[in-house]
């Protein structure tokens, strides 16, 4: 039953219409490359940005504001918030963003927002955020939810992720799953359907 619920939740998360960082041999069947974008069924598809991708190789949509040394921070954080917490309150969305920002300051983790979001995404079971490795095209289907996620991401980036909602958490999970690591960490917050932890 958990696998069925997960599959339904993941399939409901579908599709983000953003440019790709580069052409890849792993393009989905039936996808077409045109003007640096990969299209499938008339929809622009998004591929994970590898941790070692140079910033200059990543295409940026015109409406994304570029700030700081990690030009894709807002895009990646918005994407993660949308697919991980779009049904949550603004407080819950900011908490998810704070976890991502906190991880950029952890030893042994990528130092950029995009690096953290897509960490392990090339492995089917190694990703940190399920939307990055579930094999389902990431399509934005709710523009109002995308706008809310973008607002939450901007707020988190303004504070450097040092807000008060996640209380220093480095991990979280939905309340309908029990990950193996939860019992070894300290629970610090519960916001909406997410439970937050730190070492």
Account of the 3D structure:
This protein has 199 residues and is of the alpha+beta class. It has one domain. 30% of the residues lie in helices and 12% in strands. It has 5 helices and 6 strands. The chain has helices at residues 2-12, 73-85, 90-104, 113-117, 143-158; strands at 32-34, 37-40, 43-44, 171-174, 186-191, 194-198. Helix 2 (73-85) packs across helix 3 (90-104), helix 2 packs across helix 5 and helix 3 packs across helix 5. The two termini are 30 Å apart. Mean pLDDT is 73; it is low at 1-27 and 34-70.
- Overall mean pLDDT score? 73
Count of spatially separate domains: 1
Unreliable parts: 1-27, 34-70
DSSP helix fraction: 25-40%
Q: What's the β-strand tally?
A: 6
| Sequence of secondary-structure elements | HEEEHHHHEEE
Helix segment tally:
5
* Rg, nearest Å: 16 Å
N-to-C terminal Cα separation, in Å?
30 Å
Strand content is: 5-15%
């Amino acid at each position: 039953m958990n696998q069925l619920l997960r599959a339904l939740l993941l399939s409901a998360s579908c599709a983000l219409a953003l440019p790709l960082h580069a052409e890849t041999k792993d393009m989905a069947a039936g996808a077409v490359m045109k003007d640096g974008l990969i299209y499938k069924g008339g929809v622009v598809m998004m591929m994970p940005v590898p941790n070692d991708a140079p910033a200059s190789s990543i295409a940026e949509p015109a409406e994304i504001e570029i700030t700081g040394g990690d030009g894709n921070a807002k895009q990646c954080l918005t994407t993660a918030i949308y697919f991980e917490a779009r049904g949550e309150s603004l407080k819950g969305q900011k908490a998810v963003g704070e976890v991502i920002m906190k991880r950029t300051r952890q030893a042994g983790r990528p130092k950029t927002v995009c690096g953290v979001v897509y960490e392990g995404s090339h492995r089917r079971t190694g990703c940190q955020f399920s939307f990055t490795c579930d094999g389902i095209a990431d399509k934005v289907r709710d523009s109002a939810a995308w706008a809310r996620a973008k607002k939450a991401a901007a707020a988190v980036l303004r504070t450097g992720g040092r807000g008060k909602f996640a209380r220093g958490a480095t991990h979280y999970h939905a309340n309908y799953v029990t990950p193996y690591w939860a019992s070894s960490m300290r629970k610090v917050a519960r916001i909406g359907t997410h439970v937050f932890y730190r070492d």
